[in-house]
Design a protein that fits this description.
- By secondary structure, the chain is of the alpha+beta class.
- The protein folds into 2 domains: 4-35; 42-97, no CATH class.
- Helices cover 36% and strands 27% of the residues.
- The chain has helices spanning 4-34, 60-63; strands spanning 52-59, 70-78, 86-94.
- A 3-stranded antiparallel sheet has the order 1-2-3.
- A hairpin with a 7-residue loop joins strand 2 (70-78) and strand 3 (86-94).
- The protein is elongated, with a radius of gyration of 21 Å.
- The N and C termini lie far apart (78 Å).
- The structure holds zinc ion.
Length: 98
């Protein structure tokens, strides 16, 4: 009969298998969703097609001291933990730097 620690390790191994399986299912569903013509409003990762998650906004002039244009920089991160993609969206709404 297996001892207590061996059984606990076996449980952890099975739990990790379940987590990997769930991650793979999430990735596949993201790819399937990205082909849906009705899915026009989801901002998707250029690298893996997973959904990008909004992280926050910053004033452009707050980020760059000598910037004359007024606008907002929005940060997004890929929801796929294995992807490590970060996206910044620059929206200039008052261009003074011509
Ligand atoms: Zn990605």
């Amino acid at each position: 009969m297996k001892d207590h620690i061996e059984l606990q390790l076996e449980v952890i191994r099975y739990e990790q298998m379940v987590e990997r399986r769930e991650e793979k299912i999430r990735e596949l569903k993201n790819v399937i969703d990205s082909y849906d013509q009705n899915d026009m409003f989801t901002f998707r990762c250029w690298q893996c097609r997973s959904e990008l998650i909004w992280g926050g906004d910053h004033d452009i002039q707050e980020l760059y001291e000598d910037e004359l244009d007024e606008g907002i920089v929005s940060n997004f991160s890929c929801s796929n933990n294995n992807c490590n993609t970060h996206v910044e969206v620059y929206h200039v709404f008052n261009q003074k730097n011509k």
